[in-house]
Amino acid sequence: MVVQADLSDVEVDRIFHALADRTRRDIVRRTLLGERSVSELAAAYAMSFAAVQKHVVVLEGAGLVTKENRGRARLVRADPARIAKARDLLDAYADLWRGRIDRLDALLADDDQT
Fold it and tell me: What are the backbone angles phi and psi of residue 77, rounded to the nearest 5°?
């Protein structure tokens, strides 16, 4: 079984690279609850505004969040559709491994009966 996704290998790499960082996962979580300004996000972490902005840029590059300028504020919002695509990919991998384990179990059961 080949895992198919409507994401390119480059897109998958970007998504999982972005989600490999704890702060970026937290930013995604916060922005799923509602849009937040970069300043608001920066206030939640013991790091500079610039560091948080860099995290947002990585998430934006992966398509996990979008950023919109409204006046002086830069508002960040998670993209649930993109996150769902990543989840679908993980579900496909889980199905692949479940199938392999089921075949291994069947093979071992046949071996026990002979």
Answer: -135, 135
